[in-house]
Amino acid sequence: MKWSRKFANEIVHAFLGGFALVGLGGAGVALITAYYLAGEIYDYQDTVDGVHLPPVDAIVCLAGGRGRIAAAGDLWYRYLELSKKSSPSIQKVPVLYLSGTGRQVTWNLLLKQFRRGVAQSIQLENVMIEKESLNTDENARWLAYFAKEYHWKRVLLLTSSYHMKRARFIFDRVLRKLGTPIEVETLSVYQEPFAADEWRSGPNGIRVTFVEYLKWLYYRTVWKKI
User: Fold this and answer.
1) Are 13 and 1 in contact (CB under 8 A)?
2) C-beta of residue 142 within 8 angstroms of C-beta of residue 99
3) How deeply is 48 buried, as exposed, middle or buried, from its count of CB atoms within 10 A (0-12, 13-18, 19+)?
4) Residue 102 region, left (φ>0) first, then alpha (ψ -120 to 50), else beta?
5) For the packed helices 161-177 and 203-221, what is the interaxial angle rounded to 10 degrees?
């Protein structure tokens, strides 16, 4: 049976809104439908290509995913190199802002996540460590606070490719509602053990993509924050 995308989305939305209560059959249909539609979370185009870096006040790394801190460190190092070369577009090295690291993190633990060249160059004063946020909504709220505190005008958001579409959606809404006039550029990290177009090839890709898709649907249809 071939379903339209609109009809399939309606089934999943109904499931998330409580339709699953009618029985396992309805839930099963919704889950199967979500399996075929979940890949839409990768339907996002970054604003930065990773080669031509824009001037920003901070690199905002959402630290909850595999490989993100290392990638953020590499990105910070590229800004450092450009500034040393007197690049006309990069007048200063942005702050490396790590969001949602958890309260147990220490500077020594962070250094171990950076590559050797980065760890040898970066100093504690180059980094801001935000330990309080537990989810993407809170990541955005804490960023809004610090952006106002330090008068940031433009930041570069870095997170995993499977997470970026939802993260950008949440950040845009939270920053707008809180009256934080900050421009958000985006650059996705591709360090998962599966490619975005091959997420069905293994159990980890299916699990990560499916869970993120359900979260995406929740924030698009149910979330009424602020």
Assistant:
1) no
2) yes
3) middle
4) left
5) 20
pLDDT at 24: 53
Residue ranges of the chain that CATH labels 3.40.50: 58-189
Q: What is the pTM of this model?
A: 0.85
Beta carbons within 8 Å of 63's beta carbon, 6+ residues apart: 69, 98, 99, 100, 101, 102
Residues of the chain below pLDDT 70: 1-31, 225-226
Amino acid making up residue 220: R
pLDDT, tens digit, 9 for 90 and up, residues 25-80: 666 666 677 778 899 999 999 999 988 999 999 999 999 888 999 999 999 999 99
Residues 63/99, Cβ–Cβ less than 8 Å = yes
Closest CA to 158 of 50, 86, 55: 50
Place of tokens 């500034």: 83
Q: Domain 58-189: state its class.
A: alpha beta
